[in-house]
Amino acid sequence: MAWFKRKEKGITTATEDKKDVPKGLWYKSPTGKIIDQDELARNLWVSPEDDYHVRIGSKEYFEILFDNNEFTELDAKLTSKDPLKFEDTKKYSDRLKDVMDKTKLKDAIRTGVGKSKGKDLVVSCMDFAFIGGSMGAVVGEKISRAIDYSIKHKIPFVLISKSGGARMMEAAYSLMQLAKTSAKLAQLAEEQIPYISLCTDPTTGGTTASYAMLGDINIGEPGALIGFAGPRIVRDTTGKDLPEGFQTSEFLLEHGFLDFIAHRKELKNKINFYLDLIQNQPIR
After folding, report:
1. SS3 for 105?
2. Beta carbons of 121 and 155 less than 8 angstroms apart
3. Which among 72, 155, 170, 78 is positioned nearest to 120, based on CA atoms?
4. CA-to-CA distance for 155 and 171, rounded, in angstroms?
5. Nearest Cα residue to 249 out of 274, 269, 227
6. What's the pLDDT tens digit per position in 11-37?
7. Are 56 and 125 in contact (CB under 8 A)?
8. pLDDT tens, residue by residue, 83-107
9. CA torsion, ordered 160, 163, 168, 172, to nearest 10 deg
10. For residues 225 and 241, what is the distance between their CA atoms, to the nearest angstrom?
11. Residue 278 in contact with residue 216, Cβ under 8 Å?
C-alpha cells in the first residue's frame, strides 16, 4: 500500500520499529540482472544469469587460487613515496593516505606465495580500487621482487593485471617500471620458470605495453577490456567506427593476442593444467 494511503487509513509505523535495508545486499549487473551479494560471492563473483564477471581484487583472487586461502604475503608494507611533490586537485601524498585508509591496501598490487592444487605458486595481483590500479614504482618493485622470489625458489609465477596504466603522479618513475618488469621477466624466462599472465577488466596502458602481454601463456577473463588506449580514445583519434566487441577478450583471442579465455570458475584448474603440462607433471 502506498505511503499516502496508509496515512489516510491511520496505518503508521513507529520510528523505532522501522527497518533500514543495509546497503550492498544486492548487485545489479550491466545487463540488469540482480543477484544477492552472498550468492554472488559463492559464485566467485560471476552473475549466474548473464555470466558477467564482476571486478574483484587481490583478496578475492587469492581466495580462488590458493588452497584454503592459505598464503604468505610478500613485501606487504611497501608503500609509495612522492618524489615529485605532485599536486593536482589534491597532493599526491594526501591522495595516497586517503586511498590507503579507504581500501586498507598499501598500493595497487599484492603478492602471495602458497599452494594451488598442492603445488607452490607465486601470485601477484593488481587492485583497481587503488588509484585505478595505476602502475607506480611500488607496483614495479613488488613485481620484480616476486620474480626474484620465483627464481630463487624455482616456483611458477602468475601475474593478474587490472589497471588503467601508468601512474601520472610519478611520471617517469612510473614509465621506468615497464622496462624494469620486462627485464625481470626476461630473467625468469632464462631460468625456464613458467610465467602466466591473466588479463582482467580493465588491462590498459603501460600495463598492456609491458608485463601483461609477456606471459608464456596469456589468459583473459570473459568480456574483459584489454588494450593500450581505450575504445573512446581510439575512436576519437582515428575518426572511425570500431569493430563490434573491439578490445574485449573475445576480440583479442580471435586476433591472436590471447592464448585462451578462462571462466573464473575454471581459472584455478586451467592454470594448474598448463603448469602440469609444461613441467611434465601428472595431470590433477
Report:
1. coil
2. yes
3. 155
4. 33
5. 227
6. 444 444 444 434 568 999 888 889 999
7. no
8. 999 999 999 999 999 999 999 999 9
9. 30
10. 17
11. yes
In degrees and rounded to multiples of 5, residue 65 shows phi and psi of -90, -35
Question: Which residue bears the cell 552472498?
Answer: 38
All three cell numbers of 188: 625468469
Residue 157, classed as helix, strand or coil, is strand
Roughly how many angstroms between the first and final C-alpha of the chain, as a whole number?
A: 58
Closest listed residue to residue 195, CA positions, set 145, 150, 156 = 156
E strand segments, the chain: 26-28, 34-36, 71-74, 109-116, 119-126, 157-163, 195-203, 217-220, 260-261
Q: Which pTM was predicted?
A: 0.88
Identify whether 202 is preceded by a cis peptide bond (ω within 30 of 0): yes
Measured at the CA of 220, the angle between CA 48 and CA 162, to 5 degrees, comes to 90
